[in-house]
Each structure stands twice: as C-alpha cells, then as structure tokens.
Amino acid sequence: MIAKLQTGAQEETSEVFSRNQENKNSYGERSMEHKDDGKAGSTFERDPLHHFAKRLSATKTLRDGHIILRMTGESGGNYCLRCEGSHATLSQEIPPGNHHVELIGDAKQLRPILEGRKDARVHFLAGGFRVKGNISYISDLAMELGILKQPI
What we know:
The protein is an alpha+beta fold. It folds into two domains: 2-30; 49-145, 2-Layer Sandwich (Nonspecific Lipid-transfer Protein, Chain A), CATH 3.30.1050.10. 39% of the residues lie in helices and 21% in strands. The protein has six helices and five strands; from the N terminus they run H-H-H-E-E-E-E-H-H-E-H. Strands 3-2-1-4-5 form a five-stranded mixed sheet.
C-alpha cells in the first residue's frame, strides 16, 4: 500500500514538473501567456505597460525594432514593445534575434521606473536593473519621456 502511494506521488510530481517545464521560456522563466491565455479582461489586457507603450509612441526618438522587458518576481514576465513607424505596441511574444534594448530586473523596480515614479538613474547605477543593448538609445528615450533628467 505504501509503495503504491509513493509511486502515485512520484507520477504526480513528475507530471507537474513536466507541465512547468512546458510553460517555461528559453530563460527558464514562466511565461505570462500561460497564466492569462490572452482572454478578454485578463491581467495582460489590464497591464499598465500598455499605457507606457502609448507614451512611447508619442516620442520622436522611437526607432523601428523591439524593446524587451524581462521582469522577475511578482507581476513580472517577459514583454516586447514592438516599435514600427511611430507606434509601439505591447506583446508577450518575444521574437528571436537581436533587439535594440533589453531591460532586465525585478518588476518591483522596473514598473515604477517605467511609470515615472522612481528615479531610473539612481536605480540603474545602484544595480537595480540591467540594460543590454543600445544604452544611448534607451537613455535618449527615457530623457524624452521624462524618466531621466540627464542622460546615462
């Protein structure tokens, strides 16, 4: 009886592990799309980053390409700001290849910075988040958005 229970528990653990592996992206992080499945009224649809994408669309500095946000922790996830023409849209699908910029850090640090509530320069210099790619481009965008007072 005990052996049968242990076997059942091992099978269940193996099944859960297998499902979690399927839901992870190439960085080993759980994908937000599996949490929400893109349903109307989902967390993604209400994400304040959509507002950031609209603000980004109003800038003159915006270039065609992608800005990737890799946020860990609660309310984190992987996002892509797809910039085409003078329009930026938020997506949870990260296209392969090179991107203009990747911002990497804890969501509790990055979200307030993108919303303009925290000083990006102080948090960047303190190691609160990392920037991969064209740092002068993201610095120029942040200056235009009022996120930075002086360039990095």
